[in-house]
């Protein structure tokens, strides 16, 4: 069956933080009088990210706070691990608010070099959607990098009420893309959320692993029709 629609993950696939997360967190913490090494923060962030269940809301319900509370708890966990004790509630809220606003800015993110040429090529004859574990900040970030023009819709987990690899995300994408699972290809960098999540719903998947399996390879595979079972 011909490939009609391509779903693109965002963070790690289209965009990435402009500077290391540990460095940004450390700079914002210092403004609150908190001294923490960027490397220790990064290690704690990876652990907290791995161990924190993704947001999940009742079927048919979006997140009431756009998943801001989930991020607040994650940041609190990160600094609790680094400092050995939880931050005071007021301190955490002030620190988190600065980080939350920072990552809402397009300049806090950079676009991978292979993204625009790939989107320009594939948008000529495919419908493109973003399918991301993100919140409403993503739209302004993509708009700030002039990427929204390529996408028919942006499907985000805070609005769906579930995060990849939950089937609800991919079901929402199929409805938005008006296509069958076998007519769609999901592209992302996360093995569990993107590759296995899509495949569990019967959707073809392409695992982005730069530089050896970047978006240039994706274009070649799509153009040659060799996208079935991609990994």
Q: Overview of this structure, please?
A:
Helices cover 45% and strands 13% of the residues. It has two domains: 5-16 and 108-224, 3-Layer(aba) Sandwich (Rossmann fold), CATH 3.40.50; 19-106, DNA polymerase, domain 1 (Orthogonal Bundle), CATH 1.10.150.720. 36% of the residues are buried. With 231 residues, it is α/β, with parallel strands linked by helices. The protein is built from ten helices and seven strands.
Order of helices and strands: EEHHHHEHEHEHHEHEH
Gap from first CA to last CA: 19 Å
Summarize the main sheet: 5 strands, parallel
Computed structural class: alpha/beta
CATH topology of the largest domain, by name, is: Rossmann fold
**Top CATH class of the largest domain:** Alpha Beta
Query: What is the 3D form?
Result: globular
Per DSSP E runs of 2 or more residues, the count of β-strands stands at 7
> What is the name of the CATH superfamily of the largest domain?
HAD superfamily/HAD-like
- Sequence of strands across the biggest β-sheet: 5-4-1-6-7
Oligomer: single chain
**How many domain modules?**
2
Strand content: 5-15%
Q: If helices are DSSP runs of H or I spanning 4 or more residues, what is the number of helices?
A: 10
Average pLDDT number: 96
Assign the CATH architecture of the largest domain.
Answer: 3-Layer(aba) Sandwich
Q: Helical residue percent?
A: 40-55%
Spans of at least 5 consecutive residues whose pLDDT stays below 50 are none
Task: Work out the radius of gyration.
Answer: 18 Å
